[in-house]
Amino acid sequence: MLVAAVLVASLLQCPVEVDIPPITQDGLSGTAVAIDGDLAVIGCPIGTGNGWASGLVIVYRFVEHGWVREAELIAEDGAIGDMMGVSVDISDGRVIAGAWFNNHAGTNSGAAYIFEQVDGQWIQTTKLIANDASTQDSFGRRVAIEGDVCVVTAPLDDDNGASSGSAYVFQFDSSWFQLQKLIAKAGTSGDQFGLGLAMEGERIVVGAPWADDGTGKAHIFDRGNVMFFETTVLADPNGESMDHFGFGIDVDGDVIVIGSYLDDDGGENTGSVFIYELSIGRWILNHHMLPFESNVGVEFGVSVSIKDSTLLVGSRYAIVDGMQAGNVTVFENWQTQSVLVSPNPTAAAEFGWAVALDGDNALIGAPWLEPDGEVQFFEGFISSCNCIGDLNQDGMIGVTDLLQIISVWGSCQGCEEDLDENGFVDVSDLLQLISAWGECE
């Protein structure tokens, strides 16, 4: 079913302030983001950890009513140009970060690092490398972790021909070991299998966006008793060269979401998103979604994240205030609910390059905002964050909010203190605030 997205509801989500801005100097902060419960991680691959562009990962924890910066993770053996943080993921308190230009087995052979808290301190617990690593494999371009299993891709590996790509599965059993190497059954040179990746439970989905002259494919691997087996290959039935189907991928239960960010169905390089659902043992294409913007070149689908009935889709060049600043569309049950933008939209920032959603919270990365990149936290994906009267957005309606209303008493067109929006801040606004006194629900 082809669905042209139509905005059917007003903005329900809200940006969330953090104690320290989620960036690092000149870091391309927000190149990768991930969230799991009360922990969020942000990849900064150009950040200066052990040297320029060795990379680092920022960890935030949700405490009471806000996100607090908890740690900066740096590889113990990080070197100039490793770019750790080009990819990140988190599960059950374990953080994994890819360093695709690490040189342990030759130039840009790549590595990945796992960090955990030990006695209250974040430390590196493992460095992952491929058993057959070689020069220019770019191992670490994408990573995923869930429980005691993680996946690291090497999209420039050469097993099926030059830059055909591969993915490595690691298992934890007292220590991490390489369980398996995945390659596409019918992979060919240039596919870059592993340039897209998602994992949940016993299922891994690996994107090969350069397959078939850039038309793109996505390969599904399901686990048997121990090993993973390729069970299905997905592709756009009307795909064309350079659509790059399979770059943005996510999976949630028996639903797989795949972005084709240069698809031309809605206009040149407008992009689209495909929704597949498992039905009686077969993956069925149930929805093909186009952006509601008519502008060409928005690249809708460059990133996707799904949780239950909520889907985020990044459009890194969407027009905001007349600029190609980028946005993220929020879908609920495949209907457009809202559109998220940066509080300070900036041309070429690529807001929406990276997205991550878990529960009521989401992160959105805009790594090309000069000079450091940008990451925004949002809330309100399960319950509305619009708590009328919480003027300082601390999750409470209290004395500070009351004093703010009193400070602008009188005529006040369009100001946030005018809770009943009648053009005046007066007793009615004060009474409305008092009626909601206490913690926001």
List the total number of helices.
3
Bin the helical content: under 10%
Q: Briefly, what CATH class of the largest domain? A: Mainly Beta
Strand segment tally: 35
Based on helices, strands and strand pairing, what is the structural class? mainly beta
Number of domains: 2
Strand content: over 45%
Give the second-level CATH assignment, the architecture of the largest domain.
7 Propeller
The outline comes out as globular
Q: Tell me the Rg in angstroms.
A: 22 Å
**Span from first to last CA?**
37 Å
**What is the fourth-level CATH superfamily of the largest domain?**
Integrin alpha, N-terminal
Describe the largest sheet: 5 strands, mixed
Uncertain spans: 3-11
Q: What is the average per-residue confidence, as pLDDT, rounded to a whole number?
A: 93
Strand order of the largest sheet: 1-22-21-20-19
Indicate the CATH topology of the largest domain: Methylamine Dehydrogenase, Chain H
